[in-house]
Amino acid sequence: MLRLTEETFYWWSRFGMDYPALLTILLIAVFAFGACWGSFLNVCIWRLPLGESVVTAPSHCTKCHYEIRWFDNIPIFSYLWLRGRCRNCHEPYSCRYLVVEALTGTLFTLLYCKIGLAGENPALLLFYWTMTMLCITTGWIDAEHRLIPDATTIPAFLLALLYSVIFPSVWGENATWWTALLCAVVSAAVAGGFLGAFALIGRKLARRDVIGWGDVKFLTATAVLLGLPGAFFTLFAGSVAGSVYGVILARIRHRPLRRTRIAFGPFLAAGALLWMFAGEFLLKWYLQFVRVSGLAQ
Ligand SMILES: [Zn+2]
Fold it and tell me: How far apart are CA 60 and CA 45, in angstroms?
């Protein structure tokens, strides 16, 4: 029930609920759902760079190893209730826990509204929510550790292939499961191949790594989750933002631009988020701009 049609609303109205009340409950439920996934992303952000499993060991305090009970693990509420401290040893927890949970919940809700309001294919929401989780996890890990773990990009890529087979309509109205899979694989190969070739040629010319393989894998997964235009938009927007940041950083640190290294992951993540929320609008605006300047000549 992504959109509240008159028919679905009729059934809810029999429980005595009016439209604003129902919509509020729906949005709160989506936010809570997103915040729960945010809680899982926190585990990924902390454990993946350490090479630990994200499923086997239960959550525990990193200082006193006190096992966190379910009632202390409720997204957002528990953090606020315990004022961001461990119940046992009172060690303060990173504010990342709160930020990631609230951010994931908010982005899930906004994307739900955006796709629902625009009347887009409801299955697209699965792709976008997965992309959101990939963006938050890799963006954060890369900013902190300068690495994009395969444990984030490869599962996202495989999930996207699976979604394409189950919901082929995302790739086109008449797409069957195998044409959707073909589109997904070709998109991944083009985007991944493009950035991979750039990485290889760049290393030859500059005699150092100009881009990490984690970034290449991230863009490959993006191409299946957002399609080829989305992947190239992500790369373009991420490169522009990353370059501006690099120039500013070099200025502040009084270092040559050549020796200024930045984590590219957070910028790619920002580019992908921008595409999901405003990609179509920006593309239309850009094409209009090109058409106008073409006419003027
Ligand atoms: Zn503790």
Answer: 14
CA distance 119 to 125: 11
CA of residue 227 to ligand 1 center, whole Å: 44
Alpha carbon distance 9, 267 (integer Å): 41
DSSP state of 170: G
Report CA(93)–ligand 1 centroid distance (Å): 9
Distance 79 CA to ligand 1 centre (A): 13
CA 192 to chain centre: 18
The 3-state DSSP class for residue 55 equals coil
Q: How much distance in Å is there from the Cα of 124 to the middle of ligand 1?
A: 41
Q: Mark the residues whose beta carbon lies below 5 A from ion ligand 1.
A: 61, 63-64, 66, 86, 88-89, 91
User: Could you tell me how far CA 224 lies from the centroid of its own chain?
Assistant: 13
pTM (2 d.p.): 0.90
Specify whether the CB–CB gap between 100 and 78 falls below 8 A: no
Q: What is the DSSP letter of 91?
A: P
Residue 92, classed as helix, strand or coil, is: strand
CA 81 to centroid of ligand 1, rounded, Å: 15
Task: Give the dihedral sign, CA 276/226/125/288.
Answer: positive
pLDDT digits (tens, 9 = 90+) for 172-223: 989 999 999 999 999 999 999 999 999 999 999 988 888 999 999 999 999 9
What Rg value do the Cα atoms of the chain yield, rounded? 22
